[in-house]
Amino acid sequence: MNIKINGNIVTINEPIIAIKDSEDVINAIKKAARKSNTIMIDVKNSFSFPSNIISALERLKDEGKNITIKVKEPILNELFKDLNLDREFKLIKE
Predict the structure, then answer these.
(1) Burial 43-80 (b: 16+ CB within 10 A, else e)
(2) Residues 67, 20: Cα–Cα separation, whole Å
(3) From edge to edge, which strands make up the β-sheet containing 38-43?
(4) Confidence band (pLDDT; 50, 70, 90) for 45?
């Protein structure tokens, strides 16, 4: 899984397919959350976003973290809107 962490920015450069991918993403997000109250997740090439990642983001939000998700794939952006996640997190369409 190609994930980069730069301060409070987590960039996901590959599709999130396997359970291990989800775990890697969650670990990267938690690492960024330890450094800042504001987290940016830049999803470059994934059309899916597993529910365990969404749950981890919800927990971080409950802890007072501000979460922004930047989405490149139109299908993923539509999924977030269908799930009303645009009300939970700040979404940016790339």
Answers:
(1) bbebbebbeebbebbeebeeeebebebbbbbeebbeeb
(2) 22
(3) 3-6, 9-12, 38-43, 66-71, 90-93
(4) confident
What are the domain boundaries of the chain?
3-93
In whole angstroms, give the CA distance from residue 80 to residue 50. Answer: 11
pLDDT category at 94 given cuts 50, 70, 90 is: confident
Contacts (Cβ under 8 Å, ≥6 apart) of 65: 33, 37, 38, 39
CATH 3.30.750.24 is the classification of domain 3-93: yes
Find how far residue 13's CA is from the centre of its chain. 12
Distance CA 58, CA 79 (A): 16
The stretch 8-16 carries a mean pLDDT of 94
Report how far residue 35's alpha carbon sits from residue 30's, in angstroms, rounded to the nearest whole number: 9
